[in-house]
Write a structure and sequence with these properties.
By secondary structure, the chain is mainly α. It has 13 helices and no strands.
């Protein structure tokens, strides 16, 4: 048995620290949600009016785009898993990925990876491999979102009143791009496994896999940004700058989502992403209209996660990838040989 497969009880000190961090995360999340709730309540009359102006056709288009966005993410996750030696058909891959995705709404930041690891193990995928791919998906998705969202950074920093030098943006892109470079990623993986006293992977990630998965993650972000844009375009004033609106809606959404993903203190970046996006959209429309867009965008994000997780759960349940209930005999969880 590999060292990474062998279970070991957590040290008491580590358990205490983890509980303390979870309490801090929950406390911070509550404060953020209370602050957002108070702001929404104070402006609810205006926000409610703007919500009614979105219109059914626009809402349907935004919903379709929001539902499509997560599908591109699972394609990127699947590319990384295949590159490390475990090829899954899109059906089981979706079952594993989308059910696990609901874990991101729990305090602790990595519950989605834990669920995916357990489910994929029943398909013959080594736990360590799934865990690394899950963490890589979070990292690469956040980095691609931040890179594509950088054009909106000057608006966030200056509210459009000043110009950020172009070389500053290029420097940030260069730094983030280095983190996406396969040799750097592979060095980070090897270092992490060595520090955790785990066996190394069978081989490094390839340039093609990192590039293709990053492309899928970028596509997912852009589709999600377009979902925000179709609503913002409907609520923006008639004299609003069309190019500026596209920038703050699409690139701004990516920047806000990236910042939210790096805000590991709160689950799924709840509150953080929304506040940043309101600030950006408010440069082209009233705050009440920007808040209405962000409220609906957050709802559509959660709806997409729940719908895809329900589809994944049904597939996983019929193929015995979920743990059996207590006292019920379940299938043998011993994985079949695959990709090792």
């Amino acid at each position: 048995m590999n060292r990474d497969e062998a279970g070991a009880p957590p040290a008491p000190g580590r358990t205490t620290r983890k509980r303390a961090l979870d309490v801090l995360r929950i406390g911070f999340l509550v404060l953020v949600l209370v602050a957002v709730g108070i702001a929404l309540w104070r402006n609810w009359a205006e926000v409610r009016g703007d919500l009614g102006r979105i219109g059914p056709v626009t809402l349907l288009a935004a919903t379709g785009l929001a539902m499509l966005s997560p599908f591109f993410t699972v394609l990127g996750w699947r590319v990384l898993l295949a590159d490390l030696g475990s090829r899954l058909h899109i059906a089981p891959a979706s079952g594993v990925f989308f059910v696990g995705q609901l874990g991101k709404y729990l305090p602790g930041s990595v519950w989605s990876v834990v669920v995916q690891t357990d489910m994929a193990h029943r398909l013959g995928v080594p736990r360590r491999r799934t865990a690394i791919v899950g963490l890589l998906t979070i990292a690469l998705s956040a980095l691609t979102g931040m890179i594509l969202g950088l054009p909106a950074l000057p608006v966030l920093l200056t509210r459009g009143d000043a110009v950020v030098p172009w070389w500053v943006l290029l420097a940030i892109i260069a730094v983030l791009g280095v983190l996406l470079w396969p040799p750097v990623l592979n060095l980070g993986i090897r270092t992490m496994l060595r520090l955790l006293r785990r066996d190394p992977l069978e081989h490094d990630l390839t340039h093609a896999a990192v590039g293709l998965s990053s492309l899928w993650f970028a596509t997912s972000w852009l589709v999600g940004g377009l979902s925000v844009w179709v609503m913002a375009r409907n609520l923006a004033p008639d004299d609003a700058d069309a190019s500026r609106l596209l920038l703050v809606a699409v690139s701004g959404y990516l920047l806000a989502a990236g910042i939210g993903m790096f805000s590991i203190v709160v689950p799924a970046g709840v509150g953080v992403r929304d506040v940043v996006l309101v600030v950006l959209l408010a440069t082209t429309m009233p705050v009440s209209a920007a808040t209405a867009v962000v409220v609906v965008a957050r709802f559509l994000t959660v709806l997409a996660d729940v719908v895809w997780a329900a589809i994944g759960w049904l597939w996983a349940k019929t193929h015995h990838l979920l743990p059996s209930s207590p006292g019920t005999a379940g299938p043998d969880p011993t994985p079949s040989p695959q990709g090792d």
